[in-house]
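Ticket 4471: requesting a sanity check on a complex prediction with magnesium ion. Repro inputs:
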Amino acid sequence: MNRQLHIGKKHPSRQNLAACDFRLAHLFPMTTCVLPAHDASQIALAASEAARLLAKGEIVALPTETVYGLGCDALNPAAVARVFAAKERPSFDPLIVHVEDAEDIHCFTTVRGNVQKLVLRLAENFWPGPLTMVLPASERIPDIVRSGLPTVALRCSAHPVMQAVLKNLGHPIAAPSANRFGRISPVRAEHVVEELEGRIPLVLDGGPCCHGLESTIVAVEAQCLVLLRPGPVTQEQLEQFAPVRRVAVGGAVFAPGMMKSHYAPRTPLYILAVGECLPEDAVRSGLLTFGNEMKGFAEVENLSRHPLEAAPHLFAALRRLDASGVSRIYVHEISESGLGMAIMDRLRRAAHE
Ligand code: AMP
Ligand code: MG
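Returned structure tokens:
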């Protein structure tokens, strides 16, 4: 817990750091505290401490039902800048804004008419839950949150910790995943500590995230939904409300966060078709598979063949393989139906060219 971040020199003085740009200046070594938030009384205590820090413009990691988020007061541009700095996230990649309930759609967006009707139906069916909607932003949302775009991504989490912090703060919370940019999203408080220790003052530990994959993101248009990121709310579920158009990763349409390389372990990762023969370097490699037997690898993580059971364990298994010292990670493909689409999306983006 006391490991400190040093930049350049062994013991950087504040003066040295002040000369650096804002991004580095924010990486002052600080103690990262972890507060338990498992039952109602712990949540009440942890949420009020988190809200106290957030109201001062600090940043705090907290659980949602998808992955852990790194939260800040979404209406405070200086606090939002701290999130970008701690994550080393490029400023062109906008943040998701968490709101208390569907009423906030009226406060923070300018959506009207038929689109508004569709948005409210989606909120009624999927909120609170792992669905993020990209909507025209009201001017209350600072530019920095939306990276200068005219839209804002809104989400209403079902997690009791996120809900309690939102209630205590009384402002929306901008919260991207609590990992350094491009890395695997954290699904346990320990993962957040691995990623951001020394850069943030507080992590609320609400245990493992139940979905384990980032939220589904859709842009809501007049006649259709544009699926920007597959996630726990599946394309099949969304199609019951409107036709769904999928945006290809790395395709012509630029959607922030749709960078081809993302969610990546440090160890090079390769996708392997089930039934493909044993790679030559298997003895030095790890395998992540979904219910298949395959001998000959140095390390094996065998998750369920059912995507719903596999997803909550996916990122933790990838982290274990990454930390095991293998030289490559091979991953078996899984069928793309239902939640399998989101799993394959993350694996493709984690994969080596
Ligand atoms: P994350 O770090 O997982 O929370 O990523 C948030 C992602 O939400 C971004 O990388 C974008 O893909 C998406 N996003 C947020 N705001 C917008 C927006 N205004 N338009 C399109 N996508 C957005
Ligand atoms: Mg992320």
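Notes from triage: The chain has two domains: 3-246, 269-351. Leaving this open until the requester confirms.
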